[in-house]
Amino acid sequence: MPELICKILHIGKTTYYKYLKEGYPIITFLLSLQKSELEELLRSGRVRKFDNIDNTIAISIISFLQKLDVLYQEGGNPDLFYRFIVYYIQYNGSFNDWDDLYPWQGLDEIEEFQEVFYQYLIDSDTSMKQLRHTSLFINQLSRADLLFLNMNILDGFELMFNFKHPDIDNYFFSMHTRSDLLIEMKHGLEEALREVVSANRDDSIKQIVEELIEKTRETRILAAKISPE
């Protein structure tokens, strides 16, 4: 992946890792693509699935919300998911040790993500009823949903909460889904984040997520330096 991105941007690996460390949006975007899509971009200068990118983003948001709505039905506990996101942000496997920079990347494979999620629920002493209900949500998630979640974490959920598209409005109206689902998600996620990050009252979710990632990354780097070889 780094090799392909270097070729696309015409940069060397040193510059790539510098951009990665400094959180350049173009690097974040390219890392969200699959290898075949990077090869397509390198070969043709375009990625066909982004020819109509606004519709693609809307579809991704709607797909995620359709599955999230399961947690708001009777017996569900969406707060478990929001607390898991905070855990996932800090999870060892979410950081890559490229050149000991430990950038946040998230997990690539949905099966591994689901295993980590299930283990988190077990370790959290989740009731059997909530475990069964949350399993319905976990098992519906696809790799595309995972990559979309990773992209939102790297973006501080700006895309999820601020993207406007008529298809999203139509989804809420035609499916009779609670129109405040995004608001509830934003509120629940913010509460879960503030449980572990001492943020200022006016800090946005994006600022809190960035602070959590940076503090966790610094901890990883320090642990690597002091651990015996």
What does this structure look like?
- With 229 residues, the protein is mostly helical.
- It folds into 2 domains: 1-51, no CATH class; 52-226, no CATH class.
- The chain is 66% helix and 0% strand.
- It has 13 helices and no strands.
- It has helices spanning 2-9, 13-21, 25-31, 35-44, 53-68, 78-90, 110-123, 128-140, 143-154, 158-162, 166-174, 181-194, 205-226.
- Helix 1 (2-9) runs parallel beside helix 4.
- The protein starts with a helix and ends with a helix.
List the defining traits of the structure above.
229 residues; mainly alpha; 2 domains; 13 helices; globular
Shape: globular
Q: For the report, how would you describe the main beta sheet? A: none
Number of domains: 2
Report the order of strands and helices.
HHHHHHHHHHHHH
Task: Give the structure's gist in a few sentences.
The protein is mainly alpha-helical.
List the topology elements.
Elements: H1 2-9, H2 13-21, H3 25-31, H4 35-44, H5 53-68, H6 78-90, H7 110-123, H8 128-140, H9 143-154, H10 158-162, H11 166-174, H12 181-194, H13 205-226
